[in-house]
Design goal:
The complex is a heterodimer of chains A (80) and B (235).
Chain A lengths: L1 E4 L6 H12 L11 E2 L9 H16 L5 E4 L3 H6 L1
Antiparallel strand pairs in A: 1-2, 1-3
Chain B lengths: L7 E6 L6 H10 L6 E3 L9 E6 L19 H11 L3 E5 L1 H8 L6 E3 L7 E9 L15 E8 L3 E3 L2 H9 L5 E3 L12 E5 L5 E4 L16 H19 L1
Parallel strand pairs in B: 1-2, 1-3, 3-4, 4-11
Antiparallel strand pairs in B: 5-8, 6-7, 6-9, 9-10, 10-11
The chains are: A alpha+beta (80), B alpha/beta (235).
Chain lengths: 80, 235
């Protein structure tokens, strides 16, 4: 799961990283720092896995007021 | 027999709470009985008139501050207690827990400065007819310390306007004193019913002249008064 601060939410961590990257000479903008949660789900069914991951994100892994999330299944990622 | 003169204001202890004893001491000095109750308890003790969620770092503050404490057994009980009109005060980490539990609006993010702030701040009391500010004078300015890394309260502009309109933004940082970048310089907010309140400053650390200020006693004393009244109403 990729968890990101929602657009419009102040992200001081992203700003600090952006400043540092610029000091290193990189031309970057709009740096946002989120969170990656890696886990194994006890099912082989991608639909069931996705449903469970959605519930995890909504109940605990994100605060929907300030964060958005994206689910990436490794099985699917490998198939691409 | 309930003793309305010394209302019970229970202080919740999570693993990682560290201001529970200060809260207990302050409340006792203000005339309450203040038993500490454990996070695995699944009920608020009978006769309890108010519950305080203290400062600290509940469950290590992993993931997001308050996100894990929200699912503790005591929080299910606190949620029922609040739904029945019980008084609930969240201080600092307790405020974070209450927002994660959706008992209070908004969310607390890392300070805009990314620095931990630990100092006295000036606060403005926006109304004095609440259960948490009744001992304050209208327009009062309080000196109370903050000490937090994640105190940047956020709601969107629309919600901020609605909360302001509804009179739920009980405390604001004075001009130029916003230590964390909170929207609207909000330091404390209550729910629509006015029985749940959270704030980032620590009133329990400002109850003795030796600590530099006694203004915190105005807020905690207001809570003790309200707790006393709520018990008197039941007798």
């Amino acid at each position: 799961m990729l968890v990101r601060p929602k657009p419009g939410i102040l992200d001081p961590q992203g700003q600090a990283v952006e400043t540092s990257l610029r000091h290193l000479g990189f031309g970057v903008d709009d740096v946002r720092v989120g969170r990656l949660v890696d886990l194994d789900v006890a099912t082989d069914d991608p639909d069931e896995a996705r449903a469970q991951l959605d519930r995890m994100c909504q109940q605990l892994l994100t605060n929907p007021l300030i964060e958005s999330y994206e689910v990436v299944l490794a099985q699917e990622a490998a198939a691409v | 027999m309930t003793d309305a003169a010394a209302p019970v204001v229970a202080v919740v202890v999570f693993p990682g709470s560290n201001d529970d004893r200060d809260a207990q001491l302050a409340l006792e000095r203000l005339g309450a009985r203040a038993p500490r109750i454990w996070h695995t308890d699944d009920a608020i003790p009978a006769q309890t008139a108010a519950v305080v969620l203290p400062g600290g770092f509940s469950y290590g503050d992993y993931l997001r501050c308050g996100a894990i404490a929200r699912f503790s057994p005591i929080m299910r009980a606190v949620t029922r207690f609040a739904a029945n009109g019980g008084l609930v005060l969240g201080i600092c980490n307790g405020f974070q827990v209450l927002t994660e539990a959706r008992l209070l609006p908004g969310a607390l993010r890392p300070n805009a400065s990314l620095s931990f702030v630990c100092r006295d701040v000036q606060l403005e009391v926006t109304r004095t007819d609440s259960a948490f500010t009744s001992r304050c004078d209208a327009g009062a300015r309080l000196t109370i310390p903050v000490k937090h890394g994640d105190g940047c309260w956020f709601v969107d502009d629309e919600a901020l306007g609605e909360l302001d309109e509804a009179g739920q933004l009980l405390l604001r940082y004075a001009d130029g004193a916003n230590p964390n970048g909170s929207v609207g310089a909000v330091a404390g907010v209550c729910n629509a019913d006015g029985n749940v309140f959270g704030l980032m400053p620590h009133p329990e650390h400002a109850v003795d002249p030796l600590l530099g200020s006694t203004d915190g006693a105005l807020l905690l004393g207001s809570l003790v008064d309200a707790a006393r009244l709520s018990i008197a109403a039941l007798v």
